[in-house]
Amino acid sequence: MGSYKLGDLSFYSLIENHASSLDFMSLEEALHQMKRERRIFIEKSFIVMFKACGKAHLPEKAVDLFHRMGGEFQCKQTVRSFNSVLNVIIQEGLFSRALEFYSHVVASKSLNIHPNSLTFNLVIKAMCRLGLVDQAVEVFREIPLQNCAPDSYTYSTLMHGLCKDGRIDEAVSLLDEMQVEGTFPNQVAFNVLISALCKKGDLERAVKLVDNMLLKGCVPNEVTYNAFVHGLCLKGKLEKAVNLLNKMVSNKCVPNDITFGTLINGFVKQGRVTDGARVLVSLEERGHRGNKYVYSSLISGLCKEGKFNHAIQLWKEMVGKGCEPNTVVYSALIDGFCQEGKLDEAREVLSEMKNKGYLPNSFTYNSLMKGYFEVGDSHKAVLIWKEMANDNCNHNEVCYSILINGFCKAGKLMEALMVWKQMLSRGIKLDVVAYSSMIHGFCNANLVEHGLKLFNQMLCQGPELQPDVITYNILLNAFCKQNSVSRAIGILNLMLNQSCDPDFITCDIFLKTLRENVNPLQDGREFLDELVVQLVKRQRTVGTTKIIEVMLHKFLLPEASTWAMVVQQICKPKKVQKSINECWSRLSC
């Protein structure tokens, strides 16, 4: 407005200001004013704008601006602006689009842009994220041909891709190659490999990598320790994980939420929720606060163990400390109320959950449906099913299975059949629970042949849909009730041939029949003894020990020859001798 004439640097400051506030309309006005006044456009200004596009999640705007640089604004694009746009696209997770943009620019003779190390790093990252690991390796091998050298980031990215693809040995070889080529491995490179080995359960190799890490002057950090804690928890070595946590503290490496969360989750999965709760106390004593993931794991674990009052107490403690529950925590509490038969309380929690803006998931609704079926209120279970649809929560195979199972247990076979037909018409995948429930429904209605027909359908399906011990027990019980013992024996032999071990219920079904419904009556010892022999011949150790346990509880002692076979299979001579030696050494002490 005055006599002062804007200079090129003033325009750059203007662009920088508009870009920081993500004011793209003002940016366009500034660009057009510069164009009218024939100002010189510099690449630095465009890179600032590309970054703004990244912050605003507008990758296509960055691509468009890149193409306008050379033609409309007469500013030559270089590898710097190219990398900036490529990075914006990748940050948005548009990996296929990034590779498309890369191929177009590199192939363009008019642009004449030659990729550098950063370009290759970005391309390898995109390929690895898409699972194109072999192509990423090819690009990696071409880097030296382009007069570039891979850096530690390049190696780390490719190692991560190989590890995610399950090719850990190749990733470890890449670490050796990296050192031979004179590239210094950093914490990231070591941690990528250590994490992969720990997830695989190969802690011995992971420890060797830590030794190598220390030799190279890299100090293990919280990521390294977290990987080991996770690996130890996977193997069930929770005490060692706790010791590692203490070592971590003594080495002045501060455990974070991931460390404690992993350890607590490990205890919960092992059925040791009380120990997990102690870790939470330790977490808070160290000045940390338990997050919603930690609480959800503990509350869910306590509900599964039947310690519902403790779960409620922990819930109150969580809310009292200002930790906002999430969908998982709400769902765990609702499931706990349903297991306790407290459906009104479960509904109240559901209402609170919705009021606070948390959407119930299929697990939430499934818990309520099961709860209502368990207390004999199938009408309210159906209302939950409808509510689920109204809340745009998809009905999956588990929901259908619960509905079929509930109707069959309530003796409502026609309703169960309607749901079954609906599953088939909608292409919903039938699971073992749905089949077993329907077979149970037919058998309860004295339509055993219909149940057998479904059972035979299961046998014709793939390995993921084969009958389990529950399915077999339903049919065995149905045939035994009809006094069709020979048909029941036929199903039992099929069960053994299909590698499905009988359990305590299987034994009880046959024992009851042999003692009450055959002529002459039998105590069942001979039957169970023969069953043990059949399992030993098939080298099914777990099944063998289960039946032996039943026999001992029922005071039906196996034959001496059967005992000999069982002991020979279960007790390996070297291990037995080792155990004997250890016992003698303890006694001598």
TrEMBL record:
Placement of PPR repeats on the sequence: 116-150, 151-185, 186-220, 221-255, 256-290, 291-325, 326-360, 361-395, 396-430, 431-465, 468-502
Entry keyword annotation includes Chaperone: no
Entry keywords, A to Z: Repeat
InterPro entries (UniProt xref): PPR_rpt, TPR-like_helical_dom_sf
PROSITE patterns: PPR
Pfam families: PPR, PPR_1, PPR_2
The keyword Cell division belongs to this UniProt entry's keyword annotation: no
Alphabetical list of SUPFAM superfamilies matching this protein: TPR-like (SSF48452)
Gene3D superfamilies linked to this entry: Tetratricopeptide repeat domain
Family, similarity comment: Belongs to the PPR family. P subfamily.
Protein's recorded name: Pentatricopeptide repeat-containing protein
Organism: Flemingia macrophylla
Lineage: Eukaryota, Viridiplantae, Streptophyta, Embryophyta, Tracheophyta
